[in-house]
Structure formats: C-alpha cells, structure tokens
Amino acid sequence: MNVDTAVEAARQPHPAPALVEVDQAARYFDVSPPFLSRLLARAPRTILKAVDGVSFDILRGETLGLVGESGCGKSTMARLLVGLYRLTRGSIRIEGQPVEILATPQGRALRRRVQMIFQDPYASLNPQWRVGRIIAEPLTLHGVEIASDSSGHGASENRRVYDAARIREHVDELLNQVGLSTADRSKYPHQFSGGQRQRISIARALATQPDFLVCDEPTSALDVSVQAQVLNLMKDLQEKLGLTYLFISHNLAVVRHVADRVGVMYCGRIVELAPRAHVFAMPRHPYTRMLLDAIPDLEMTGKSRVPVAGEVPNPLNPPSGCSFHPRCPHANERCRHEIPELKGFGMDFSVVACHAVEERRI
Amino acid sequence: MTLPLLEIRHLRVEFPSRRGTLLALDDISLTIGPGEVLGVVGESGAGKSLTGAAIIGLLEPPGRVTRGEILLSGRRIDNLSDEAMRPIRGREIGAIFQDPLTSLNPLYTIGRQLVETIQTHLRLNSNQARLRAIELLSSTGIPAAADRIDHYPHQFSGGMRQRVVIALALAAAPKLVVADEPTTALDVSIQAQIISLLKRLCREQGTAVMLITHDMGVIAETADRVAVMYAGRIVEMGPVAEVIHRPCHPYTVGLMGSIPSMQNDAKRLTQIDGAMPRLTQIPSGCAFHPRCPKAFAPCSVARPELMPAGVSLAACWLVEGSVAASPMPKAAGR
Q: Is the ipTM of this complex over 0.85?
C-alpha cells in the first residue's frame, strides 16, 4: 500500500461517501498594527495562521472529535465549516457543495442542513427573547418540512410551510425531544440553568432538521453531572436522527466518550487523525502522547506523572519546521526545518504528521 | 493525632437579601492537618469557594459567618477585625485564585508585587527581599528569573502567571494555602505542570493545602483527603482513594459515574437528573433527596449528619448505623 492510498484509507475507513470534505483548509488573520504605526516601526504585516492546511473527511453518521489546547485553531475550524469565516485557501465541501455558497442565496438549502452549537449557553441565546421565539426563528426562515415519509432527511423537494400553528407545534416537539417541557416555551433564557440552556441551543440547532452539527465545546461551560446529561442527550439524538457531528473539545475524556475518530490539532494543523481506539490506546504523535499523559486520571491516585516542559508556542511566531519540535523529546535536525505532512503508516487507519514516526525512531 | 492546623466547626454563612436570607454554607465542619492536602470538590454553587473565602476572611459583603468558628492552630480567626486579619492573610494563610490575570496587578512589575508581599510579612531589606523574590520565582520554574522579575504580568503566559501567583502565595512560607481552582483556566499540559509544582513546593515547605476544584482528576492526583460538597453542605469526606473507588453518598456515586473515564467504554454516562437547587429553594431534609434515586421516607424530613461510613464520613440516611439517628461528632478525624 503506498502512502497516498494509506492517507486515503485513513480518511475513509469505510467506503461510505463523506458528508464533509476538508482539503488543505487554511485561515489567516491579519493582526497587524494600524498602517501608520507599522510604517513608523518599519514593521511588516503580522499574519496569524489560525488554521494552516488542515484536511479531513467526516462520514455521514459519525462523530469526528477535534482536540487540542487553546489557540490551536479548533474553533476557527468550526467557524470555517459553517461559513462564519472565509477560507484563506483550500476548500471545504459539504455534500459536494463548496462551503462558500452558505453565504449566498443559493446556499439556503445547505444552510438549513448545517447547524452549530456554541460553547457558552449564556451568550448564545438572546436574553430578550422567549425560548419559543428563539427555537422558532430558524423555522420562520426555513419553514417546517411536511414530510410524506418519516425519514424526511435529505428530501429537499418536500414541501415547506411557514404557518404559525405548524411552527408552534414543531417547537413543542423539539422541546420534548431535548427533555424540556412545552411550558418552557414562554420563559426567558435567564430562567434556566446552564444545562437547560444548552438543551435550548440544541433544540434550536435541530429545528431545521440538519444533517451536520458543528459542536464547539458544547459542554465545557457545564458541571460534570450536567455535562453527562447533555452528552447522553447528544448521543441519543444522533442515534435517532442519524446526525453527523464535528465535536470540538479540549477535554480528551469527553472526546474519547463521544467520538468515532479523533483529530489532534496543534498550532493550526492536525498532527494525528485516527480511529478513537488507536488514538487512546496507541497514540503515535509525541504531542498526542504528551496530552494523554497530562490528563489527571482518577485511577492514578497517588501516582505522579511526568509533566511535559514548555508551553504552546506563540501562534504569531510559530517555530520553524514541526511546530512541536521545541517541546518534543524526539526532535532532530530535520524536525527543526521541515514541516511534516500527515502520512499513513501500516494498516491501521491512522495518519500522523511526524518525522520521528516516519523514520521509525519512535 | 496532632492538633489540626485548621479546624472549622459548624460553620454557617448567610447572605441576607431582600427576598430573605440565603443559606450559602450550612453546618460545615472539617479539619486540615499540618502538611495535609484536603481536596474540596463540588459543582458550581456548592459552596466550595465560599468555604475558602470564609477561611481567608474574604467573604464578600453582605455574606457573613453567622454561626460556628474557624480555628487556625487553635486560635479563632473568623471573628477577627480586618486589622487583625491582615498579618494572618499572606503570612499564615496564602491564597491562589483561579484567574492568574486578575490576581496580579497589571500596573506593577511582578518583582515589585513580590517584594511588597515579602516585606509586608518578613523583616528583610529591599535587596534581600529582591533576592528572595528571584529565588521564589526560580523555585516555581520560571526560567531566567533574575531577568523576568522586572517584567509586567501581561508579558507572561497563563501558565507562567499562575507560577508567579504561586510564588506570591508562598512568599511568606505560610502554613496553609487555600488554592481555589488553581488550574481551571489552564490547558491540560500546563495544568499538569502547575499541579506537580504545587505538590512539590508544599511538600518541601510542609505547607497544608486546601485544594478547591471541580475536577475530580486533579483531586485524585493531589489530595490526601477529599470533601464533597452539595448545596452548601459537606455530603461525604474521606481518604481520596476511598471516596473515588467506594463512594457512599448517592450524590458522590452519581458524580463519579458522570465523569467520562479514560478506561471504561460505557456507552452512556451515569446521569443525575435535575440540577443543584438554588439557594432560595434548598429542599427540606437532605438537600439531595429530590434527585436521589435511593431516597426514602426520612430523607425529605430530617437532615442527615456526617456519620462514619467505613473509613469515610457520609451524610446519608442509607449509611449503616444512621437509622439510629444518633448525631455523631462532626469534627472530621482521619
């Protein structure tokens, strides 16, 4: 098996068509000081490479987890996928359609099928609107689908109605689906706890019967017992509605619980992408190993672990070559100069961007 | 048993408000021995941070201690005036807070802040204090401490700032450090560094730590004993391994089950339905009874006290021996 087919195989462990295809996606931000200051200081423009050449596919019905520490580009990736940011280069296609059309009138049908759940349930709901209105808003824009058969997904030619009674009915259904009561429709967001608010966000995201949900740290603001409720709900909904998730989190244990495959990001790139079992049982990339070592584990009472030295580099001035090399115990001269590409090794569907792994040094 | 370093007896903290008095902490009793690390866990609103704030005398008004007492090395400190509390705070009890950015003054160099703290509590001239500050900074693992001492907080990363905060807390070699969510704002890899640093420094100095966090993993790795809080009360307290592997109180059982594990492959997490009650609506009897899968008649009527359950203490009517309803002494021994 040559390298290219291995990469291909890693991206598509099953022959099922990918719902989302991300190819060399990049997003740069110009964070330069104002023109005059720059001129006086004779400083060049400052470019922040938040996401720098990321490729992956998400298959229909699976959950792809993205993990990484703050500033690694996880959230930028999420926003790229729903069209909230424009790509600097590369491409993202959802069901074969470029993500750029989301911002155009032609993207209306696609927009309905891609939804997002945000981290902070306090900031993502309009405090002046009642819950009923919050959940109904996407429906007043996109209408309620009258499906002839119950598996109405993907049947875009189904009739859509915008009638108020129908929308109301659908809102009630959604509230029940996420474990809230229909009476909650007339309350305001402040009357709910964090976990309940996140349920409202989920109901709003589900309103238009999407196929693909981008979840950016959906449980990070919640307490563990409430997090368990929300994670269970999301799993149930996925099973029931056949949803596809991109699940972003900094919490490896949570990602291990929900994801089918896991991508590990560092400094705007994916350093390892593999089925869940491989990432957690046989991590290949030194950064993945370090992250796994760093989790305080309930089972390790009394034992101490070796914390890895160093910090996440400044994204404005990332290290040359492999951006992990200053912290990596296996770095050599090549790592300092040459950026490693994601490559597949062996028959397990993992891809790793590491010279040391490629050269079989580790 | 040696004299506990810190002893809290039947502490009650109230917040008078227009709509009646909120009972934020209700009958908290615990002890911390010299050099011991006591973990305090609970979900938001359980009263963890308030317990810490009460100890250092930093309760935000109108919150106040209305019953019970706090003793540091046998001396009562909860009724001291601000003036009398000041030399204790910093000298005998150090504090580390969650957000390393807001715990440092952005207008002063970290050296100035350290020297000020050192000179407040120790009789050193400015040169000696500066040397001590550099020494402290290098002991917290800040590279090139002698140069970085003149930098401002914004020139440090989050992890480095938290190291500075730890250096500040330990500047006067206190006997007790109250660490309130010291690693919550940090990334996992930095969190691991900070925890092992805190552990090492406290072991070296023999400092006792009250480690307040919502992260059971951090507790598992750091603490000797752990107290689990719910709705302003301690529901279970005991040695860490015991509470984690053999929790007694149904809330602790639920809490442990809801944490996604790195080992087992449960398809669903155990969930505790409902949410922690608001302080205005704390249920009668055991505050957990409306959410408790094992609740029975007495739970909604009478509040269970902390009673021995194996080697731990648990406040639950299901715990063996509690049917006799004999209130046990609540000062938690080892």
A: no
